Amino acid sequence: MTQEMIYFDHNATTPLDGRVLAEMMPYLTQLYGNASSTHELGKASRIAEIKAREQVGELINSNPEDIYFTAGATESINIAIRGGISLSGHPAPHIITLETEHPAVLDTCRFLERSGVEVSYLPVSGDGVLDLSQLRATFRAGTYLVCVMWANNETGVIQPVAEIAEIAHEHGALFMSDATSFYGNYPSSLFFYLEIDSLLGYLLSLQILSA
């Protein structure tokens, strides 16, 4: 007798919600124009893109103009970290992150180290949470960016983002969070703590699952 599988890996990826599929079908089959084109199909795609940007902005309390669509969280994390550091204006900018971050963050930081960026990889306690006193002690003159995952996709640990953001701002640093596994499980109003965050579209159905 074949047993029915119970799927517990929604923080890694989720099945496509039927409502999302229904919303997307016109743009996958009929309204397939390039949103940058000036013909009618392109204009229809452009209108849909603007609407999507407004919807995401409303969800996370952000200006639509500040929303950037990418192929996935890994790409957006790369753009955010590398782009942010390129604007630091410091000859040896410094990043603070955690040893338990997603490889998208860790690999990007290791890449930047080869070009002179200094990175501090902080450990976490036995329960997976960052020691805020250690965070405070790690800042230096060139610290430009603090990058901490909001909710760990493997352990479920939630970092004290409000406190981390406050400490970063006290030291004049930007705060970025990989919020891929956070959104949909907690109020979106909490996103006002962030200058930069990363979300993954196919995980947003978690909001439906947890409602």
Key attributes of the depicted protein:
2 domains; five-stranded parallel beta sheet; Aspartate Aminotransferase, domain 2; 37% helix; 211 residues; globular; disordered C terminus; alpha/beta; 7 helices; 11% strand
> At the first level of CATH, what is the class of the largest domain?
Alpha Beta
Mean pLDDT, to the nearest integer, reads: 83
Which overall shape is indicated by the principal axes computed on the Cα atoms? globular
Low-confidence stretches: 190-194, 200-211
**Number of helical runs?**
7
Architecture per CATH nomenclature, i.e. the level-2 architecture of the largest domain: 3-Layer(aba) Sandwich
Element order, helices and strands?
Answer: HHHEHEHEHEEH
- CATH topology descriptor of the largest domain: Aspartate Aminotransferase, domain 2
The assigned structural class equals alpha/beta
Q: Tell me the span between the first and last alpha carbons.
A: 33 Å
Proportion in β-strands: 5-15%
CATH-level-4 superfamily name of the largest domain = Type I PLP-dependent aspartate aminotransferase-like (Major domain)
Spatially, the strands of the biggest sheet line up as 2-1-3-4-5
How would you explain this protein's 3D organization?
The protein has two domains: 18-66; 73-210, Type I PLP-dependent aspartate aminotransferase-like (Major domain) (Aspartate Aminotransferase, domain 2, 3-Layer(aba) Sandwich). The model is unreliable at 190-194 and 200-211 (pLDDT under 50). With 211 residues, the chain is an alpha/beta fold. A five-stranded parallel sheet has the order 2-1-3-4-5, sandwiched between helices. Helix 3 (73-86) packs parallel to helix 4. The protein has helices spanning 18-29, 40-59, 73-86, 103-113, 132-138, 161-170, 206-210; strands at 94-98, 118-122, 143-147, 174-178, 196-198. The radius of gyration is 19 Å and the shape is globular.
